[in-house]
Amino acid sequence: MENDIQLPIENDIRTIGLEQMRRERVLLASELKSIESQISDLAFKNYGTYADAGRATHDCSKTFGGMREGTEDLSARSEELTNAFQDFRKKAKLLAAEQELIQKALDKSNPLWELLSLPSKMDVCIRAGYYDLAYSLTNYGMQLHQQSQLIKNPLIKKVSDRLVEARSYLLEMLFNKFSGPLDLAESIKVVNNTNKFWIFR
């Protein structure tokens, strides 16, 4: 079958003259040059488009490269940012707890205010002659001194010290009572209050 195809071609070649073959060769060469010229013109006319496409490709590659580097940097810093956020939350909780403590301390109904007012109440009791109350307050100061955990607080220690120091002043006031006239009931009261200091000293 292959031989059958080649026979017509060989017959055509035999029938074509040498001069005609030369003309065909020239025509083919001319067609080839025309095609090459058209390709050159097409490339020249569309050079700007090719150049723009090349620049766009370069810019896109550069942009995506920057985005990739930025993403890698964020990934590397994600743990650092997470730790910083957790630290912030801890500090925020501490600040909230401190603020709540301050608000409670500023509340006049807080027992702390009552405790802080005891030294001034002690002075009032001594000057007004309420020796039983004054003794109870100074005795309370002694009890505070024995509370090792409470006395670590500077405010409580200061109150306790003031109440204990007032014992000497209270005892002096009781002794001074004997320097003036006293009725029997008042004398017994002063003696009883004085004896408390020696019993619970």
UniProtKB/TrEMBL annotation:
Keywords on record: Golgi apparatus, Membrane, Protein transport, Transport
Record-annotated membrane-spanning stretches: none
GO terms under biological process: intra-Golgi vesicle-mediated transport; protein transport
Superkingdom of origin: Eukaryota
Pfam families (UniProt xref): Dor1
Gene Ontology annotations for the cellular component aspect, listed alphabetically: Golgi membrane; Golgi transport complex
Membrane-related topology note: Peripheral membrane protein
Localisation: Golgi apparatus membrane
Sequence similarity: Belongs to the COG8 family.
Protein name, UniProt field: Conserved oligomeric Golgi complex subunit 8
Lineage: Eukaryota, Metazoa, Ecdysozoa, Nematoda, Chromadorea
